[in-house]
Design goal:
Chain lengths: 181, 287
């Protein structure tokens, strides 16, 4: 079914490849960020960078290009994050799927708002996500962890979002836009 | 592709998220119930990613080194003075060490001392920080067919790093001494009393269970103890440091926050294995 009628170039193989890779950009980019942040960079708070990056990526793309960040992809990203670290398998999946669900649900309202409102919404979501991750990890390992890492993770996630969002907004209009293929 | 009517398609797309969340809970339960499976999947992923990590690590390490070099250039003068002083001090220690070594050799010869077997070791590069927010571990790229087994001991150039907990075909995971699951029998070097070193996920693990009457002293060296046959005795771990709330912790010698290369030693010890799934113990007993 053609949703947007009009004149357009023929769908050659090259064009289809181009469109596919543009559509796959958000997922690929997120997976790559997971790998890069797990490299021992010797930066302070290294462990918290990975969940922070995953959360910001999933939230941004779920909000602005949900077709390129479907639930199945979010599930795969969560599984990758869990298997890369030693956290109980499934915790990140649930956290990221919840964030994705919230972003998609609030989409209609948030997309029309300016950057600051979106960021504030994200700060709230990140607080919930850090808390949920902490609670799930405590429950699954049957051990009470100090909430300090969760707090730090929240602060880092909130601080990382503007930088990532700036890059992603550019990508969103150019690299990751299948319509430009 | 199957053609579905628009309402059915919409309903299906709305169902995807709840179904996937349910599946995630399923994965969580499965991971909890079958720890061996989780471990196997983790190591398979680590094995598959080890070459990719190797490729990524090259440029990152290059940038890291360049930045470090630039920093060194600025402090080269003061660093040189410091090193010269340290060298003088170390030369005195070298004389002392050589005298003690000679004395030790002659005493051992007189006592018919059975020497400890020299351990074999392999050196491996740390390619990833594999712990996450609530655990402390690193992933090593070991190359195919290396004889690394669980329970072997990892040291960097300064001191104890941790123990190998998971082994794949070309990667291995080392649980650091700072991890919350890490328990290491130690000896306090001044009093020779035993204690346990308990990881807390913080930079400094905590000392516990020292015998009554021999409090660990601030600055005292802590080494491994051969109790429980899990470690050889005398591997350097760190020095005692008291926190503000008067809890003795150990400042590790090993630079756990910037590990690059570690040596994996095989002491042939068969004592307590590092923390792992309960299922494996059952399998071992059956054999």
């Amino acid at each position: 079914m053609d949703k947007t009628p009009g004149i357009r170039p023929r769908p050659t193989l090259w064009r289809q490849l181009d469109a596919t890779s543009r559509a796959a950009f958000p997922a690929t980019c997120t997976a790559l960020m997971l790998l890069v942040t797990s490299f021992p960079l010797g930066i302070p708070g290294q462990a918290e960078w990975q969940p922070a990056a995953a959360l910001a990526c999933v939230f941004f793309w779920s909000l602005f290009r949900p077709n390129s960040m479907p639930p199945a992809v979010v599930f795969a990203i969560g599984l990758l994050a869990d298997l890369l670290g030693l956290s109980p398998v499934g915790a990140s999946i649930i956290v990221l799927l919840t964030v994705h669900g919230l972003a998609v649900r609030w989409r209609r309202v948030l997309v029309r708002q300016g950057f600051v409102v979106v960021w504030l919404a994200f700060v709230g979501v990140a607080a919930g996500a850090a808390l949920l991750q902490w609670a799930l990890t405590c429950a699954l390992t049957m051990r009470l962890f100090s909430p300090a890492p969760a707090l730090f993770q929240w602060a880092l996630t909130a601080g990382l979002y503007p930088a990532l969002a700036m890059l992603f907004t550019r990508a969103h209009r150019s690299l990751a836009n299948p319509e430009q293929a | 592709m199957i053609r579905l009517s628009i309402p059915v398609r919409q309903a299906l797309s709305r169902l995807t998220l709840p179904v996937l969340i349910a599946v995630a809970f399923g994965v969580m339960l499965l991971g909890k119930a079958d720890a061996v499976l989780t471990e196997r999947v983790r190591m398979a992923l680590a094995d598959a990613l080890a070459p990719i990590f190797g490729i990524i690590s090259e440029p990152i390490a290059r940038v890291h080194d360049t930045v470090a070099d630039a920093g060194d250039l600025l402090t080269v003068r003061s660093e040189n003075t410091r090193l010269r002083e340290e060298n003088d001090r170390l030369r005195q220690w070298q004389a002392v060490a050589m005298a003690l070594d000679a004395e030790n050799t002659s005493l051992k010869a007189n006592l018919h001392w059975i020497p400890d077997p020299a351990p074999s070791y392999v050196t491996a590069r740390v390619v990833a920080d594999a712990g996450g927010v609530y655990a402390r571990a690193v992933l090593l790229s070991t190359g195919p067919n290396r004889a690394i087994t669980k329970g072997q001991i990892a040291l960097d150039e300064r001191g104890l790093v941790g123990r190998v907990t998971e082994v794949g075909t070309r990667s291995a995971r080392v649980l650091l001494i700072t991890d919350i699951n890490s328990r290491i029998p130690v000896t306090l070097e001044n009093t020779r009393s035993r204690a346990m070193l308990v990881g807390t996920n913080n930079a400094r693990p905590r000392l516990m269970f020292w015998p009554e009457g021999s409090m660990p002293a601030e600055g005292e060296r802590v080494v491994t103890s051969s109790e429980a046959n899990a470690f050889p005795s005398g591997l350097p771990i760190g020095v005692v440091h008291y926190t503000a709330s008067n809890v003795p912790e150990v400042e590790p010698f090993a630079r756990l926050d910037r590990l690059e290369v570690v040596r994996i030693f095989d002491y042939g010890l068969t004592g307590i294995q590092p923390p792992e799934s309960p299922n494996r113990l059952v399998a071992d007993r059956k054999r």
